[in-house]
Amino acid sequence: MTDSSRRPLAVFDLDNTLADTAHRQRYLEREPRDWDAFFAAAPADPPIPEGIALALESAKECEVVYLTGRPERCRRDTLDWLAAQGLPDGRVHMRRNDDRRPARRTKLEILRRLARDRDVRVVVDDDEMVCEDAERAGFPVVRAKWVAPSAALRTAQEGEGRT
Question: Cβ-count burial of 78 within 10 angstroms (0-12 exposed, 13-18 middle, 19+ buried)?
Answer without folding.
Answer: buried
